[in-house]
Amino acid sequence: MSDxxxxxxxxxxxxxxxxxxxxxxxxxxxxxxEFLTMLGPSGSGKTTCLMMxxxxxxxxxxxxxxxxxxxxxxxxxxxxxGMVFQNYALFPHMTVAENLAFPLEVRKMSTSERxxxxxxxxxxxxxxxxxxxRPAQLSGGQQQRVAVARALVFDPDLVLMDxxxxxxxxxxxxQMQYEIKHIHENLGxxxxxxxxxxxxxxxxxxxxxxxxDGVVQQLAAPxxxxxxxxxxxxAQFIGENNKLRGTVTDLDDGYCVVKTATGAMVYAKxxxxxxxxxxxTLSLRPERVVVDPEPGAVQNMFEAxxxxxxxxxxxxxxxxxxxxxxxxxxxxxNSANHAFLAEGETVTVGWxxxxxxxxx
Amino acid sequence: xxxTTVATIDDKLLTKRLGKAMFRSRLRAFMxxxxxxxxxxxxxxxxxxxxLLQGISDDTFSSRMPKTTMVLSEWDAVSExxxxxxxxxxxxxxxxxxxxxxxxxxTRVNRxxxxxxxxxxxxxxxIAKIEPPYKESLPGIKKKWQDIEVWQAMKTASRKYTPGYYxxxxxxxxxxxxxxxxxxxxxxIHLTLMTRTLQISFLVTIFCLLLGYPIxxxxxxxxVRSSNLLLILVLxxxxxxxxxxxxxxxxxxxSQGVVNDLLVYFxxxxxxxxxxxxxxxxxxxxxxxxxxxPFMILPLYSVMKGIPPSYVRAAKSLGxxxxxxxxxxxxxxxxxxxxxxxxxxxxxxxxxxxTPALVGGQEGTMISNTIDxxxxxxxxxxxxxxxxxxxxxVVLFLYWIYxxxxxxxxxxxx
Lengths: 360, 414
Ligand SMILES: Nc1ncnc2c1ncn2[C@@H]1O[C@H](COP(=O)(O)OP(=O)(O)OP(=O)(O)O)[C@@H](O)[C@H]1O
Ligand SMILES: [Mg+2]
Prior knowledge:
The complex is a heterodimer.
Chain A: E1 7-15, E2 21-30, E3 35-39, H1 46-54, E4 61-66, E5 69-70, E6 81-84, H2 96-106, H3 111-124, H4 140-152, E7 158-162, H5 170-187, E8 190-195, H6 198-204, E9 207-212, E10 215-220, H7 222-227, H8 232-237, E11 242-252, E12 255-260, E13 265-270, E14 279-284, E15 290-291, E16 300-311, E17 315-322, E18 325-333, E19 346-351, E20 357-359
Parallel strand pairs in A: 3-8, 3-9, 6-7, 7-8, 13-20
Antiparallel strand pairs in A: 1-2, 1-4, 4-5, 9-10, 11-12, 11-14, 12-13, 14-20, 15-19, 16-17, 16-19, 17-18
Helix pairs in contact in A: 2-3, 2-4
Chain B: H1 2-53, H2 60-64, H3 66-74, H4 83-98, H5 102-112, H6 117-126, H7 134-141, H8 148-157, H9 164-169, E1 172-174, E2 180-182, H10 190-221, H11 224-235, H12 242-253, H13 258-265, H14 281-305, H15 310-317, H16 322-333, H17 335-350, H18 354-359, H19 367-376, H20 381-405
Antiparallel strand pairs in B: 1-2
The structure holds adenosine-5'-triphosphate (ATP) and magnesium ion.
């Protein structure tokens, strides 16, 4: 972590009703110029964190710093943080241009500078001709762009976005993801983004904070999160994942052996196991399972029965029965000489010790 | 495009089919509302129209005194009445005396020339024995029959369709030659009443807005459980009779009432100089504001409830202080509620009747109290109708103004 982050959450806790902590001991630094995404299932406390940062909800305990200044007692309008709301919150009684001019007006900017900036902001989101329209006369995607432009027009250091693309259809959402990413890159503004869509998080972010139950489970770059999840929740939440449970029987130099309920021994990489005898969840990505491996090429090899085949074009999604589980998924790539499987057939599958991560 | 291809294939057939389908669904919709339409027609539209008609038509005189009416219509209203006119009058008087409707005729003429009621009734008692020439014998019974103003009053009263009542409602007077002049100084009361009614309604609307807006805001922002409780408190007055509430205000505000007692107790005033808070305009204003408050709060509440908190939050995140966020972002979005509440309160207030009658005293009564007077005491339904008509026109005019400047479609009732 760098020495002077833009935002620092320090031991922040939040409770709405005095009984349940919806945010439990949050410690999080947001670096300048970073695109940080808070990702997590519904009700995990993402919006709450954002609201505390924006100043609409007080933190129950702990301190939030902006530019190394504690801001718990700074009212929202003095924080200078831009915000994009899920329902856009464009003022319906003002035109698009008036909406954009609003933050400049309350900052007592001169009329000419105001119209200059409004024009630039509208051009940035490719809505140059829409200044005189009312928000209700715009499509969802256009409203979304206006909301982004309005949050940026007064040059804030930090912009918060709470599921800004939630109401858009899939195509538009993907297009907007790229546009927001490009705006972020061009302006160098710091963005804290909230979503519960993992592919959106993976596409856009420099770093992702995975939330569950009021706790940050892991904070890392997208590729790290996917390839080296630190606990079972992250492994399950990001991408697809096969789970095997068992007891640790041997632990040595970062590698371990886990004995499953069926008595099979699985060689795995020890990521989050502490000692022999502990329970552990093994995590294995479907695309890392090899069908009919060369003997000796992989440490783990087992017999499996093919239960279901789904043809998906670039790969064939195969559900197999393995080590007492019937929900084990294997992705067989549709490559030049891949294995042809039939339902009910018995095959050998295997994987590298490296690819199988022993988690808590 | 599909539209054009469809149109070129069979343009007319399509329109026809569409028309047919539309007609059927419209017919069904119409049949559904027929009962309520009939009900409204019979119980609302027809009675009101026929009542309003009374404001311009009056056959009290013309139907009972047909012969007199005929000769009066030919009379120029300045020359001396002829023997023929006297004869017609006597003939008619004999009839109305016999069928006991002379009182109604007398009352009618009395409206145009006060003091003529007894002229008719006492003449009626002797009319049976009268002999021609009537031009001499009728003034023989009562000398006043020679007064040309009596004849002019009868001429005015004999008109079946008359602008006279509307004129009276506006403090004007219809003279016997058909021209309209201002009412005598001491009989001008309706315009004063009308302006007072408008003024009271306007003030009540303003007070309701000032008091209701914060409450509605509180209702809309409080958590559901406490806001429901508060809403019940707001609605509670609705479940109590207006009479009870008004009487409660009498107990509160009268000179020996609770408020004055408290003021004396705290030394704001002393026993000799208690404030007169009731039986005047102030009393009407206080009681009506209280009674009409829910009409303001409910539409405001429903509009405010629909404004997501994210708007004000957005304004604040953009740098607006609490006050600016409220004034520039929140308040403009409540205008539909303000409009609806204000129109409701104003229109209900302008026709308000029980409360001003009970607590208004002399200077706090309103136009509807006068209408009621004419309906039940002086039995001048025609003038009551004309006053009602004027009131309706004023309301429609204000409605039109509102539409011009705020826009009716900008109003939200729930
Ligand atoms: N104003 C509030 N009063 C009481 N409890 C609240 C309030 N807002 C949120 N909560 C509770 O706090 C928890 C976290 O809510 P939060 O809105 O932060 O979740 P989230 O991660 O943003 O979820 P989502 O993805 O559904 O938006 C939830 O259990 C929610 O019920
Ligand atoms: Mg949320």
